[in-house]
Amino acid sequence: MAALVLLRAGLARPRGAQMALLGRSLGRRPAVLAAVADRSAPARQSHSPPQQGHGSSKAASLHWTGERAVSVLLLGLLPAAYLYPGPAMDYSLAAALTLHGHWGLGQVITDYIHGDTSIKLANTGLYILSAVTFAGLCYFNYYDVGICKAVAMLWSL
User: Alpha carbon 116 to chain centroid distance?
Assistant: First the structure.
């Protein structure tokens, strides 16, 4: 199999009888393998089937767009937090970081946790973790120096 990959990439050359044997089958083999794979393998789903709240592809598409928007928002929010520290930036960071982490861990649960009871337990734990994380960051922002100042203090060490 590795030899075929190298041959197709042009990194190795077959010699003698191998050339005659491989020369005829190289062009047809990928199509045959693709046809066999299409018939024998079930369709792979990258995410779990629609769940409550995500009943349509439109909702899933909007959720995916929201995840990308929060990721891009974080790219701009981090330099802005350095340039303009303050309470509004601290709470914005707390919300965006918590939401980003919640959605990311939710995908880990979707991909790696199987079984109805296990999924429900993992999702409950995720919601508790996200709520505690957001509450802790808000507490830190209100009663202590805040996220921006804390990061600046760490950088000054």
Answer: 22
